Fold:
Amino acid sequence: MTVTMGPATVFQESHLSGKKLINPMERNIYLIRHGRPALPDHQLRFLGSTDLSLSEEGINQARKLRHILEGRDFERVFHSGMKRALQTAELIFETRPVNMEIIPEFREIAFGEWENLSMREISQQDPAAFKARGEDFANFTPPGGENFTDLQERAYPAFEKILSSTTGDIMIVGHAGVFKSIILRILGLSLQHIFSFRLDYCGITLIYQQNIDLSLRKLNWTPEI
Structure:
């Protein structure tokens, strides 16, 4: 499915002359979630602004991804600046030099007082708030944190800026919440759908850009990981 971007349309000004498109552009945008961080267990937790490093499993995931992406060239590589994203990017490009740029707007959503707590803990400690969150993922804000609307409003303009300043294939290494908010915006879907699909550790989401149109080519692609 190809989505023609309305208010979110981004392009290089040099590509347009009046209403005639010149220098047509085709390229791929790789959104790569970081590897598994050093969590204490495998429970579902509210991990957002806490700056954890990669676990051994996450390191291995990123190194496998390095082999999968060998031979692909990228005009620029971006990451959020958080340890788990930085380390994943460094491991992907462990054997070849690349300039990496930090985009602070791509930091994961802040869960405030819910940071690092498991979903089970929150559902038991504050069942009313947990229920309210499920009824309005877009606007529910945990104490001291931010909501997914806040996240999308800081992340998507940064994504547009990157697209308008590049023409070749690019890679962004970051976080599930950020990437989901971007994907839903591209598809024109509500943030209420943010948990309707998975983005696994080191999963690749591939966005195809043709001129000013963006389409979803692959979602949560995890070849051999």
In short: The chain is about 30% helix and 20% strand. Confidence is low (pLDDT under 50) at residues 1-22.
